[in-house]
Fold:
Amino acid sequence: MPPTSRSSPVRPAPAPAGAPAADPAGEPAGDPSREPTDAALIAASRTDPERFAALFRRHAPAIMRYTVRRLGQDPADDIVAETFLVAFRRRGAYDAARPDARPWLYGIATNLIRRHRRAEVRALRALARGGADPVTEPFTDAVEDRVHAGARSQALAGAIAALPAAQREVLLLVTWAELTYDEVAEALGVPSGTVRSRMNRIRRKLRDALGDAADPHREAHDG
Structure:
């Protein structure tokens, strides 16, 4: 007597040749439009901790570039590792209504960077004296471009080093991390109006130091 359907569970049909493999959530790999949000990955990692690795792969490179630019390579390695360790430990409290975890992650990284404020100011002052930006320098090929970019970087680095720490954090989260004002507010745990007022003061200070061409504000970030 042939087995009944109840005793013979149906197995899913194999994917056609050349089709992308499904990830553990059942979503095809390689299709960005169907990739899980950060919030979904964090939620899944509460019961399957290995899912958190996808969040690391997604955001660690950008946070590394941001941290290297602020502090240099050596402290950045430790800070990025600790950022994701802290995030992993706090994942149970993550607000699932926020699909993008970048502000949360940059907020953690910023708190860790605060321990190295003196090192950051030293690095900026060294750049102002004629050093190379550790992020942009390797990707600037033309000699003439390097000269002009280096001069601008030196002048700007000196002006940034002179900013109060709270203003410097806002400026660099907007310009280097490319967060919107609202995202910076979320990262720092302050009202959006505070971010806007700080940016207004920053623009005035940089204009006084460098002229109108130094305006770091870009409308695309005002969201």
Notes: Residues 52-71 form the longest helix (20 residues). Residues 32-115 form a domain with the Rna Polymerase Sigma Factor; Chain: A fold (CATH 1.10.1740.10). Confidence is low (pLDDT under 50) at residues 1-29, 135-150.
